[in-house]
Amino acid sequence: MRSDGALLVLAAAMVAPLAGCSVSVSSWSLSKSVRSSSHSSDSSSSSSPGAAERAYREDVSDYTRAFARSHRGDFQGFQADIGRLAEEHGITNWEENPATYTAIGEGLGRAKVSDAELMAYKRNLSGGDATKAAAIQEGFDSAR
Amino acid sequence: MRPVPLLALAALLLARAAFAASPRFVDYLYIEANEGGSSGGHAAIRFGDEVYHFQHERPGVLRLHRDDWRHFRYAYAVLENRTMHTSRVAVAEATYARLREEFSERYLSERRVFEQRDVLCDDRMLLEVLLARQRGGTGATLRIRGGGFFFPEDGRSGPSAAALALRMHVLETYGPDAIGQRAAEIRAELARLAPASDDPATIDVAAPGFPHFPRTFSTRYRDLLTALLALRALDDALPLRRDAYWSPTDAGLQLEATERRALDAYADRLTGELTRLLRSARPDWGFAFLAGMARLEALRASGETGRLVLLDAFPPESEVMPRSSVRQRREAVLDLRAEADDEFMRTRARIQGGETVDEATFAALEAAGNRFLELDAAITQDRALRVPSGPLLPSRDAPWSDLIVPHLPSDDLVRSVAQARAAEEGFARRLQDRYGYNLITRNCVSEIFRTVSAAGADLGWHVDTGWSLDFIPFVSARTVNATWNVVQQSTIRSYRRSRLDDMVGGDNAFRVRLRESNVVTSTIYRRNADDSFFVLFTDDVVPLRPLFGTVNLAAALGAVAAGLPLLPVDHGHTLWSGVRGALFSLPELAFVSLRKGSFDYVPRDRRPRDTGAEIFAGAASAERRWPAGVTTFTRRPPARTGA
């Protein structure tokens, strides 16, 4: 067993200059014709609509949590980032998607933002729409 | 009983109690080596249907990727033909959540950092274009994302009725001057736009927390210019360009009554959504408006004709498979078309079944339709095949020469170009420092363990890749099995070995093994241009491996000799294939098999069933059914004796 291990290490060392955590097949792009490689775009697959929405919500929630813990106040930057994230899920007009606001609320709840910060997000992102503000609050409450 | 066993028993009971409430499982995956960039093996970590893994990419950086489990398994175990070993780790619910959050946040954070690299490059290029314009140059243009659905106008007759209706709705909502006023405001803002005074070269890519980059000059400029194009397309009620949408005459695209009603209803809602979008505070509303207006026109055309009209959603940067390759792989492309058709039909069935259409549903329909139509066109029209590298989102771009040069002194613009160039170069350097790949200290294994450590998760033992051989994927898997709370180990065989096992079970074993032992008579493997030159498979014959390796080495050297005179004809392909073949035959002489052969496509009916997600996701159950090619054994979690 030990000699087997030693041989493996020896062989690994022999090819060390070539080794390295990358894929070896470049021509499998053909197979990507029917399925994209990324989790998010795959999640837009029609065969699992529930999974697609869950993946979108998780991404928005995770991003919001990370953003809210590190930065405050740059709502334009936040909106631009949400826009890029939503596009990965096939969504361009994220402001019309109720899941966006619930997920933002969840992310804020997980980041444990203060009530004042929550109010700021609601004010800046809802654009005066009570339904959107309520969705943020709902997501926030669910994550507390 | 003696005190030590008592303590160990208590530790075991405590550990079990921690998981008793709601056990979750994290899978540590070790993927065996193959030739080329994967000759050291690979490692990944899996949470339910998400797999996170670090990949070595150009230009020498290591990046975190996230893949759907089914895709990951198909890519690595089937196409790359690599056996995967799974170590299933039982963790408490809170630990699972913390780990997943850490990996997700790192993934999103890295993606933002690498996006910024591209943004800084764009910043420099835009400033150079504007400087050239200021000096009287007229040649340079900008490509505006989303503009390609309407611009450059292709002279089709008259305005679009759908766009006219949208325009009327906008004017009724906001007043007769709404579009003109908004356009004037944007022009004024563009003219006032100035590069930021703060120096982006000082931004630290390694700063703690989620990266935050101020919006660059080019981002602001592009957002405003795109909004201006959107307003112009709306104001002129431009029709879609003829090459911007699919309208095949295939009878299968005839809409059913329920489908037609659902799409009409979505078009009505979309009119309201686009009207609200015009007043949105989001800075990048212009692209969303262009894509939405293009979709609205396609939807209205579908309603009028009773046939599904879809935008061409292939992004401009899609890979292109040449026509000659499509011809060579016609059988595979036909099979892929059938697969895409099934997916398209499933999506349509959801709408036919009464599901309310929103943007997500429509985007899924659009993407599935585009995949099918592209494959169909490649076959029926004998043309090249576009393959998307990312999600299918309508984003055709258009060259735009009507640029507004901000009112900036020439010296300021020159200084800004120099500053942007320095920022771009500085950022690339810091990116390399922060994310540079290192075979030993920063590879696909070390970063998984670092991320686990950063999450503060207790999986049973702290794995240190700094002072051990744990940086090697297969060694790391052994360490995980020995020290983490691994409750189950399983093996997913490589595609070739899995198929071989099936064949051996149902036929004359010796004859099958003999036939499948080499690339000439094998019915499973067909020569893949990506693989190095070899004759015999060595991954399933340990005692004979050095002998087979000798044959492979001799054959590869023969290919090298044949490749030299062929250089002018095949541009060194045979020579290089022979060199790599010889190199990867050497470990076989020492009983180590790295090369397994790979596949560029495997038909649906030969792929392993996608049952992995059900097997590993969620909580454990006493009885499980395992698919072919998967072997498992279960053991109790080790009693933890250390931190």
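Chain B touches chain A through 113 residues (CB under 8 Å).
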